[in-house]
Design brief:
Blueprint (H helix, E strand, L loop, with lengths): L1 E5 L4 H12 L3 E6 L8 H9 L4 E4 L5 H10 L3 E6 L6 H6 L1 H22 L3 E7 L23 H19 L3 E7 L13 H15 L23 H7 L7 H13 L2
Helix pairs in contact: 1-2, 3-5, 5-6, 7-9
Bound molecules: nicotinamide-adenine-dinucleotide (NAD).
């Protein structure tokens, strides 16, 4: 089965492409390389033994997107990762985020619904929970006011999918990622948690960081982490990595960009 992976040369996308290949799918990547490097395609090939199809396309460029779908008739599902994701940057440049994350997604969904491509996985974010009243958050926790334009783009994306699913054949799964490399205690905002991360990073990288503890950045919530009980039970999924392992793999990834 051919699966389109938007943002597939990015951090989560590229790992997903490898998993898709290892499970017999045929992933096709589109990415504008705004936050990733074309050499990721070769790196994926090194890991999986298979070079994924890749086209450099910006989702905001509706003409190129249309042409892409005209040439790729047999895509059956889409995993949508392509977005800007820096909370702080979104506070300083909201239009950049609304334009890229919302416009790009609308262009993509327009092509999909017109062509009857009905299986869609959306990369949402824990930022949709805003400043949660109760921690850990569960699948039933309410959506609250987004603390940043980035978070709001994810809420808008979710709402678009709710509305579109009602009037089209679209089957949607919304995944609200927390910090894919960090354990829940990374988000508590306490000085010692930040220090744990810094210490772990210094340990695995061998580098000394220069740092100053300052006020919280605007747009960040005080604390957010998830209850993984449902995923443990339903998907048999368990978090397996400790902080050092997460720091090491993240650092290895960053070094090769
Ligand atoms: N990493 C996290 O902590 C985290 C947490 C919650 C949600 N998410 C979401 O998961 C998704 C993937 O995150 P990631 O960490 O892999 O980010 P990433 O920046 O590594 O990957 C995103 C990719 O999308 C591409 N892209 C951005 N705008 C595009 C556009 N208009 N057209 C085509 N390509 C475009 C970038 O070049 C990049 O390769 C994003 O939607 C992000 O908002 C990430």
């Amino acid at each position: 089965m051919k699966v389109l992976v938007t943002g597939g040369t990015g951090y989560i996308g590229s790992h997903t492409v490898v998993e898709l290949q290892n499970n017999g799918y045929h992933p096709v990547i589109i990415d504008n390389l705004s936050n990733s490097n074309a050499n990721v395609v070769e790196r994926i090939e090194k890991i999986s033994g298979k070079k994924p199809d890749f086209e450099k396309i910006d989702l905001c460029d509706s003409e190129s997107l249309k042409k892409f779908f005209d040439n790729q008739k047999d895509i059956e599902s889409v995993i949508h990762f392509a977005a800007f994701k820096a909370v702080g940057e979104s506070v300083n440049d909201p239009l950049k985020y609304y334009k890229n994350n919302v416009d790009g997604m609308i262009n993509l969904l327009k092509e999909l619904t017109e062509r009857g491509i009905n299986n869609f996985v959306y990369s949402s974010s824990c930022t949709v929970y805003g400043e949660a009243d109760k921690l850990p958050v569960t699948e039933d926790s309410p959506i609250k006011k987004a603390e940043s334009p980035y978070g709001f783009t994810k809420q808008i994306g979710e709402q678009i999918l709710f509305d579109l699913s009602k009037v089209s054949g679209l089957n949607t799964i919304i995944l609200r990622y927390f910090n894919p490399t960090g354990a829940h205690n990374l988000g508590t905002g306490k000085g010692n948690s930040v220090m744990e991360v810094i210490n772990s990073f210094e340990e695995v990288s061998g580098l000394k960081l220069k740092f100053r503890i300052g006020p919280r950045r605007s747009g960040d919530v005080v604390s957010i982490y998830s209850d993984t009980k449902k995923a443990n039970e339903l998907l048999n999924w368990k978090a397996e990595r400790d902080l050092n392992n997460m720091m090491l793999t993240s650092w290895n990834w960053e070094k090769t960009l």
